[in-house]
Specification:
The structure holds two protein chains of two kinds. Chain A is α+β, with helices and mostly antiparallel strands. Helices cover about 35% and strands about 30% of the residues of chain A. Chain A has a single domain, classed as 2-Layer Sandwich (Mth169, Chain: A), CATH 3.30.1280.10. Chain A contains two helices and three strands. In chain A, strands 2-1-3 form a three-stranded antiparallel β-sheet, with helices on one face. The radius of gyration of chain A is 16 Å and the shape is elongated. Chain A starts with a strand and ends with a strand. By secondary structure, chain B is α/β, with parallel strands linked by helices. Chain B contains five helices and eleven strands. In chain B, the strands form two sheets. Chain B has a nine-stranded mixed β-sheet with strand order 2-1-3-4-11-10-9-6-7, sandwiched between helices. A two-stranded antiparallel ribbon of chain B has the order 5-8. In chain B, helix 1 links the parallel strand 1 and strand 2. The longest helix of chain B is centred in the last third of the chain and has 17 residues. The radius of gyration of chain B is 16 Å and the shape is globular. The chains are: A alpha+beta, B alpha/beta. At the A-B interface, helix 1 of A face loops of B.
């Protein structure tokens, strides 16, 4: 068993209105950051899992997302391997 | 009528429900801590408002895995009436007992004020004592009350007449200004397919006597009592 450190990024589902992202986008534009668009605000969950290999570590994290970490109605998620 | 009110860590409308049922209605309500799995055979289960688990992750996301929810889910599938108010509605959605989800209010602010909702269905066990199209004045108190669902779910809810309460103005007209939180189709409350699980964002339990500023919420509780009385008479 090895320990894998994963970063799970959860963002509002593409196509769904994200008022928080919109507010941040407007604020950035007000600060003269030109050319900023499609700002989405989500959540980052970092965790460590013990698994045989990277594939099963990721599979475990996907299951966590489906059951608890993300709401399939409103959120998308992506999983990245972080440096241990 | 015996009502089990589930208390989660962070529930804060449990006593409002308790008083509405015990003192105003004169029926029997009792609390059940969320770690229990035995509910004491209630006629109705109430998931009250509040901020269970501090709304961590998403409103209702963690409460939905409390031990008590397994029993609540079983009772729901057996046809027992389940009422979810505010955070209770969010928990019912997270648990999959009602479709869709409640996300951040479109204007990002927590809203604590009165709104108007129109009663869209009076043939449910929760609303039979209202009259069709009746406009109620009910308080809301939420940061995540913006109802969303995918197009297919929304079409199905409308086709099956499962939107029970809709935000309107005081005259019962749907206007953009009357929708406080951005909810799709002005949805304030929905019912499940079988008609025994209702979730709504406004707080009927807070307006059950004149001293509280209104009695528009009382009809929901008397409707339930009447429905349960009829049920008892036929079995």
């Amino acid at each position: 068993m090895k320990t894998y450190r994963l970063e799970v990024a959860i963002t509002p589902r593409e196509g769904l209105l994200d008022p928080e992202g919109k507010a941040v986008e407007h604020a950035l534009q007000a600060l003269a950051f030109d050319g900023v668009s499609r700002v989405r605000v989500g959540r980052l969950v970092t965790l460590e899992v013990s698994a045989e290999d990277e594939v099963s570590a990721r599979a475990g994290a996907e299951e966590m997302c489906r059951k608890l970490l993300a709401n399939p109605v409103t959120e998308d998620f992506s999983i990245a391997l972080a440096e241990a | 009528m015996r009502a089990a009110i589930i208390t989660f860590p962070g529930s804060n409308c449990d006593y409002d429900c308790y008083k509405a049922i015990n003192e105003v209605l004169g029926e029997k309500a009792y609390f059940v801590w969320h770690r229990e799995t035995e509910l004491g055979d209630p006629d109705v289960v109430i998931l009250p408002g509040g901020f269970s688990y501090g709304d961590y992750l998403r409103a209702g996301a963690i409460a939905r895995f409390s031990p008590v929810m397994e029993t609540v889910t079983r009772l729901a599938t057996e046809g027992r009436p389940i009422l979810g108010v505010c955070n209770g509605f969010q928990i019912l959605c997270e648990a999959g007992l009602l479709p869709g989800a409640l996300v951040r209010n479109s204007e990002l602010r927590f809203l604590g004020r009165d709104v108007h909702v129109r009663v869209e269905r009076t043939d449910t066990i929760f609303t039979a004592n209202y009259h069709p199209g009746q406009v109620l004045r009910l308080p809301i108190a939420h940061g995540e009350g913006n109802y969303v669902a995918d197009r297919e779910t929304l079409e199905r809810l409308e086709a099956e007449g499962r939107v029970v309460f809709r935000y309107t103005d005081a005259t019962g007209e749907r206007t953009p200004a009357a929708n406080p939180n951005g909810s799709m189709n002005d949805i304030a409350g929905i019912i499940n397919e079988a008609g025994n699980v209702l979730g709504l964002m406004p707080h009927p339990e807070r307006v059950v006597e004149g001293l509280l500023g209104g009695t528009d919420g009382l009809g929901l509780f008397t409707s339930l009592r009447s429905a349960l009385g009829r049920l008892a008479a036929t079995t």
